[in-house]
Amino acid sequence: MNCRTTCMKSLRLLDCMEIADKGLVAVGKTSPCLEELELTTCSIDILLKVVGQAFPNLKCLWLNNRWFDIQLDEFRDNFHALGIACSMPKLRHLQLFANRLRNNALAAILDNCLHLESLDLRQCFNVYVDAELQAKCVRLKDVRFPNDSTKDYEYETFFLSKYIKMVIWKFYASYSSQASSEPQLHPSITRKSRDSGLFVLMENQRIQFLRIKFL
């Protein structure tokens, strides 16, 4: 790197699956004034706590995925979000597209990132927009919730229809003690999902991971 990297204020990385937190920390040593960082479809193993410490002046973070994955592992679901909460107190703008974070990790971000002005949670379907979350978001100038439109999203993505989200709910309900009853479904939706074989897939208790692409 040459000396001009010390003036770098913005870094955008797209589809860098081999990138590691060690590389970002190395950048932080020569560019501590970095204010904007984008990691779109990059390695899921990056330790954001370490990255936040490497860029103490970070104000904008884009952490985006192509689609929403189900893993049913709370630690892994909240892995990135908790790293943000404990190491990026100066954040003003945060986009987490199709992230798996849950409400408790999101609450940690809102409690610790007190300068946050905008928050984008589109397609973060582990987040439940309840009264408590809405109350925490009142202070923000701009909020995008999980089901908000993605028409202005910059990158190509996969969309989850109402039908697909219903199937995801059924899969999740078989593992979650919090799910008390199934939603009332239109007969045509039930028929389509049964005919497609998805109900059979959902009933296979050996499934640990499910990725759905809606093309």
Radius of gyration (Å): 19 Å
* Class computed from helices, strands and strand pairing: alpha/beta
Sketch the major β-sheet: 6 strands, parallel
Spatial shape? globular
- Number of domains as seen in the coordinates: 2
CA-to-CA gap between the ends?
41 Å
Which CATH top level class of the largest domain fits?
Alpha Beta
- Order of secondary-structure elements: EHEHEEHHEHEHEHHHE
Q: Assign the CATH superfamily of the largest domain.
A: Ribonuclease Inhibitor
Q: Which stretches are poorly predicted, pLDDT < 50 over at least 5 residues? A: 1-5, 158-186, 192-215
From the 3D structure, determine the CATH topology of the largest domain: Leucine-rich repeat, LRR (right-handed beta-alpha superhelix)
- Mean of the pLDDT scores? 74
Count of beta strands: 8
Main sheet: which strands, in order across? Answer: 1-2-3-5-6-7
